[in-house]
Design a protein that fits this description.
- It is a single chain.
- The chain has about 500 residues and is mainly α.
- The chain has 2 domains: about 350 residues, Up-down Bundle (Cytochrome Bc1 Complex, Chain C); about 80 residues, Orthogonal Bundle (Cytochrome Bc1 Complex, Chain D, domain 2).
- The chain has 18 helices and 4 strands.
- A two-stranded antiparallel ribbon has the order 1-2. It has a two-stranded antiparallel ribbon with strand order 3-4.
- Helix 4 crosses helix 5, helix 6 runs antiparallel to helix 13 and helix 14 crosses helix 15.
- It is elongated.
- The protein starts with a helix and ends in a 27-residue tail after the last helix.
- Bound molecules: heme C.
- The site of heme C has 25 residues, from helix 17 and helix 18.
Length: about 500
């Protein structure tokens, strides 16, 4: 007896094959329909590369960083594997989002796929949680400080804030307990959630069939999916799409395989070219380090910067909460039977605002990052505080009135050599309130509420680095004069 016959008799392989592969699938599916399976491919890449990394990784502050260095330098193909894991993580976020946009724009979250949409939203959140927990594991500066900011933000949640921080960090401080927690979440809890949810998600896709192109479910449809006759209409219309349809195997699988293979090749190339990066080991005492989150959290951080400090925590909690509620509520609020975006102006509008807005914020964040990293013409290496000051200098448009090395406005004095003559302390009090120095100074005051004391200090620190035209570095020759403190009459 052939081995397949032997197996078939026991576990009905043929039946399984019929259910999974010999399915009829609606005709004219698009390439956009491959995004979900491409995401699944990446999940498999993450399981394999993650298992390899876990073999060498040591989740303790004393050894985590060294174990990553060991993977990068000593383990054969270790840096490729780690690079793939990092890049596949980014791609997974992008593809999950793209898949959601596809489902949204084809109205595929509508009857009867509401439950699968909810699972999809859950999967997206779990993917983000993977990114957040994975970011800490290398225990370098970037990892430590970004997680510090992230867990601090959870602390601003009303009522449960302190509890959340404690839960995430495993204590008041970010340390060994935090690393153990994040590691356990990253390699045990989250894979368990994601794996289970993916299986249910796919089982529902097999059971309900792939959503067809939109017009197949629009002609002659009842107005709302909640109308009593809609279920019957749907059954008939969906069956019709399958009559002219194709087979899942091999027609659909072929497309999926092409896209999946393309994505894996892209990840290998990116991993070989750029690797995963590793900064200096985490230094909890270096408070001047400017934390940068992983890029897919950047639009959110950029949004926070647009609001004054007092509103920041409201926005930090409010915006994600609103998005999750909107996504979860979507299939229950939107019961109109139209599926094509052409007939859903509100859906089209919200999609453009959400995607355009995030894209714009991401662009702004990246531009700021590049500005921060730009080298000084003098060749001076700036500390992170000085770089932050340089960014503020640009943001406050100091250059519209002041020249620095030949560039800028004429209204104020040239600042090219300001660092030679003035100390940081003098600059700080001057920027805070120029009128205290010269009652008729035309220089605007930058003291609170315009800028915080920290931001003023950053600018002051930056100004002290301006020591002459390009290529010249003059020695400081400070002659500060502070305004007289008004005498207090007795
Ligand atoms: C609207 C034009 C204007 C803008 C904008 C402006 N300044 Fe000024 N700034 C002036 C003028 C005018 C003076 C000279 C005032 C005086 O007579 O004391 C001055 C003076 C200064 C001085 C003192 C120089 C010295 O040696 O006495 C510093 C430092 C300075 N500005 C830095 C800044 C920085 C940093 C910013 C951005 C945060 C900025 N300025 C924005 C117009 C401007």
């Amino acid at each position: 007896m052939r081995p397949s016959g032997w197996l078939d008799e026991r576990i009905d392989l043929r039946g399984l094959r019929r259910a999974l592969l010999d399915r009829e699938v609606p005709d004219r599916l698009t390439w956009w329909h491959t995004l979900g399976s491409a995401t699944l491919t990446l999940f498999l890449v993450q399981i394999v590369t993650g298992a390899v990394l876990a073999t060498f990784y040591s989740p303790s502050p004393d050894h985590a960083y060294d174990s990553i260095v060991f993977v990068e330098r000593t383990v054969r193909a270790g840096s490729l594997v780690r690079g793939m894991h990092r890049w596949a993580a980014s791609f997974m976020v992008v593809l999950t989002l793209a898949h959601m946009v596809r489902v949204f724009s084809m109205g595929a979250y509508k009857y009867p796929r509401e439950i699968n949409w909810l699972l999809g939203v859950g999967l997206f959140l779990v993917v983000m949680a993977f990114g957040f927990t994975g970011y800490l594991l290398p225990w370098d500066q970037k990892a430590y400080w970004a997680t510090q900011v992230g867990t601090n933000m959870a602390g601003t949640t009303p009522i449960v804030g302190a509890f959340l921080v404690d839960l995430l960090r495993g204590g008041a401080q970010l340390g060994a307990a935090t690393l153990s927690r994040f590691y356990a979440l990253h390699v045990l809890w989250l894979p368990l959630f994601l794996g289970t949810m993916v299986i249910v998600h796919l089982a529902l896709v097999v059971r309900q069939g792939i959503a067809p192109r939109t017009n197949a479910l629009e002609d002659g449809a009842p107005r709302r999916t909640s109308d009593p006759e809609y279920a019957q209409y749907y059954q008939r219309a969906y069956a019709a799409t399958k009559r002219s349809g194709v087979r899942f195997w091999p027609d659909i699988i072929a497309k999926d395989a092409i896209v999946g293979a393309g994505v894996v090749v892209a990840i290998v190339l990116l991993a070989l070219t750029f690797g995963a990066g590793l900064e200096a080991p985490a230094d909890p005492t270096d408070t001047s380090y400017v934390p940068r989150p992983e890029w897919y959290f950047l639009p959110f951080f950029q949004l926070l910067k647009l609001f004054p400090g007092s509103m920041e925590s409201t926005i930090a909690i409010g915006v994600p909460l609103f998005l999750v509620i909107a996504l979860v509520g979507l299939p229950f609020f939107d019961r109109r039977s139209q599926r094509s975006l052409r007939h859903r102006p509100l859906a089209l509008g919200s999609m453009i605002v959400a995607l355009g807005g995030s894209g714009f914020l991401l662009g702004a964040a990246i531009r700021e990052d590049l500005q921060l990293a730009r080298p000084e013409p003098s060749g001076a290496v700036l500390t992170s505080v000085q770089r932050a000051g340089r960014a503020q200098f640009a943001q406050q448009q100091c250059g519209s009135c002041h020249k620095v090395r030949g560039e800028g406005g004429e209204d104020g004095p040239d600042l090219t050599e300001i660092g030679v003559h003035r100390s940081a302390a003098w600059l700080h009090s001057y920027l805070e309130q120029p009128k205290r120095f010269h009652p008729d100074a035309d220089m605007p005051s930058f003291g609170p509420p315009v800028l915080s004391h920290q931001e003023i200090e950053e600018i002051a620190q930056y100004l002290t680095t301006l020591r002459g035209p390009p290529g010249v570095e003059l020695k400081p020759d400070i002659h500060d004069t502070f305004p007289e403190v008004p005498k207090v009459s007795k």
